[in-house]
């Protein structure tokens, strides 16, 4: 599907900028698939996380840095940068790395505003290096199979598409209320931080230019006025709603062996974990934090040939994943990433109905994250940038749709995409 070889060897070396949950995952992918030692340097302000990566890859102390600025102040340390810094650090770190001659895997979103995205894309062009934005859904086997059906013409021309991103209510509370992406001033608006994946895959599947966008959404539930009566600002201070509230911190983080706490280092037992929740952001009442990003949003798009596309992001689901429905002139398709099932109904000829079960694959985003890394490595080693479908040019176009949608939500009007080209 991706045209990738079965070889899992590489002579490339890597520098990791940012050892949060995503950076750690890519470090583990490199260790598991290509061997410890492929990652030769790491920059991360949190000493515990930095040390964990250093031990995994046997990185000497002289190649461990507290900040990305320190790492990129040195002469080139590796062949490839894995850039998983915070969103607002992407432009500075990416531009600096390209100037030093690094290839790059850049975590989505490209940057927090369109001007910075353009600056990153221009820096990559000037450097002539292979760069991939981590839009993992393009490499997800379910979407790969959907793309193949669409390109085969089985359901005719696309007329309309509907996609749901089910964030899942606990995930929302962890990442987008209590966590790093809950406040736009520290990260980015929700559609950019979480759902540029989705806008990108819709742009890819429709395979045409988006012409105009309309969007609605708000922060409806995780607000101070919705706090239970008598709820303290921290869950462990004796909340009367604990028996019924699904977001009580001890319910979400109390088991250090599993759950969302593992992604942010809340793996200590007993009293130490309680103290971490008392002192840190993950012990706060979800109705009494400084979060301001939306918890639901709808985006409507019109493409060049009149195709209409809707996207819904919502926190309020009991499951996580994506569900898509595609209405074609000759048939209908629906798919779900969590079940890995694709249903196809053909209208013409024999009016076939087919159900495809996509085999499970190990790894994040349904096995897509290892494929993101593998495609980048092969593109570099074979000097064939076309193996990277999520290059900066493609990502910039889908990011424009995201920025247009957020402008529409804030200004209450339809946004023509060419308005962004005039900036």
Structure, described:
With 423 residues, the chain is of the alpha/beta class. It has 3 domains: 14-129, NAD(P)-binding Rossmann-like Domain (Rossmann fold, 3-Layer(aba) Sandwich); 138-222 and 291-363 and 394-421, Dihydrodipicolinate Reductase, domain 2 (2-Layer Sandwich), CATH 3.30.360; 224-283, no CATH class. 35% of the residues lie in helices and 19% in strands. The protein contains 14 helices and 15 strands. The protein has helices at residues 21-34, 47-57, 68-72, 90-100, 114-127, 141-152, 169-178, 190-193, 196-206, 249-253, 270-279, 364-381, 392-411, 418-421; strands spanning 14-17, 39-43, 64-65, 80-83, 103-106, 131-133, 158-166, 210-218, 296-303, 308-314, 321-328, 331-336, 341-346, 353-357, 415-416. Helix 5 links the parallel strand 5 and strand 6 (131-133). Helix 4 runs parallel beside helix 5 (114-127) and helix 9 crosses helix 13 (392-411). The longest helix has 20 residues, at 392-411. Mean pLDDT is 93; it is low at 1-7.
- The termini sit apart by 38 Å
Percentage of residues in strands: 15-25%
What's the CATH superfamily of the largest domain, by name?
A: Dihydrodipicolinate Reductase, domain 2
Describe the oligomeric state of these chains in a short phrase: single chain
Task: List low-confidence stretches.
Answer: 1-7
Q: Total helix count?
A: 14
| Lateral arrangement of strands in the main beta sheet | 14-13-12-11-7-10-9-8-15
Number of domains: 3
Shape: globular
Q: What helical percentage do the residues reach?
A: 25-40%
């Amino acid at each position: 599907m991706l045209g990738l070889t079965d070889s899992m060897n590489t002579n490339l070396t890597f520098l990791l900028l940012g050892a949060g949950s995503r950076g750690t995952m890519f470090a583990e992918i490199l260790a598991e698939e290509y061997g410890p030692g492929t990652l030769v340097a790491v920059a991360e302000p949190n000493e515990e996380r930095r040390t964990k990566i250093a031990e995994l890859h046997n990185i000497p102390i002289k190649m461990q840095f507290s900040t990305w600025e320190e790492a990129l102040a040195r002469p080139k340390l590796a062949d490839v940068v894995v850039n998983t810094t915070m969103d607002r650090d992407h432009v500075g770190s990416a531009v600096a790395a390209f100037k030093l001659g690094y290839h790059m895997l850049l975590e989505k979103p490209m940057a927090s505003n369109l001007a910075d995205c353009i600056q990153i894309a221009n820096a990559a062009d000037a450097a002539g290096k292979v760069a991939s934005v981590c839009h993992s859904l393009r490499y997800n086997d379910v979407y790969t199979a959907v793309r193949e059906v669409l390109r085969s013409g089985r359901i005719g021309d696309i007329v309309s598409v509907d996609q749901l991103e089910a964030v899942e209510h606990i995930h929302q509370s962890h990442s987008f209320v209590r966590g790093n992406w809950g406040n736009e001033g520290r990260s980015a608006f929700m559609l950019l931080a979480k759902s540029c994946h989705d806008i990108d895959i819709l742009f890819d599947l429709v395979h045409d230019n988006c012409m105009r966008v309309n969007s609605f959404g708000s922060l409806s539930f995780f607000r101070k006025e919705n706090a239970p009566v008598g709820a303290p600002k921290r869950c462990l201070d004796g909340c009367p709603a604990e028996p019924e509230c699904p977001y009580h911190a001890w319910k979400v983080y109390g088991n250090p062996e599993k759950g969302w706490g593992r992604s942010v280092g809340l793996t200590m037992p007993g009293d130490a974990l309680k103290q971490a929740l008392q002192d840190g952001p993950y012990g706060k009442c979800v109705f009494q934090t400084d979060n301001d990003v939306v918890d639901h949003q709808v985006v409507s798009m019109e493409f060049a040939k009149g195709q209409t596309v809707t996207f819904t992001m919502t926190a309020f689901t009991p499951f996580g994943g994506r569900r898509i429905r595609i209405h074609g002139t000759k048939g209908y398709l629906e798919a779900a990433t969590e079940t890995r099932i694709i249903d196809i109904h053909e209208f013409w000829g024999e009016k076939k109905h087919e159900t495809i079960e996509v085999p499970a694959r190990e790894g994040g985003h349904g096995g897509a994250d290892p494929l993101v890394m593998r495609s980048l490595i092969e593109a570099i080693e074979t000097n064939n940038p076309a193996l990277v479908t999520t290059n900066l040019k493609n990502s910039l176009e889908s990011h424009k749709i995201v920025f247009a949608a957020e402008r529409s939500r804030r200004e209450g009007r339809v946004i023509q995409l060419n308005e962004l080209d005039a900036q």
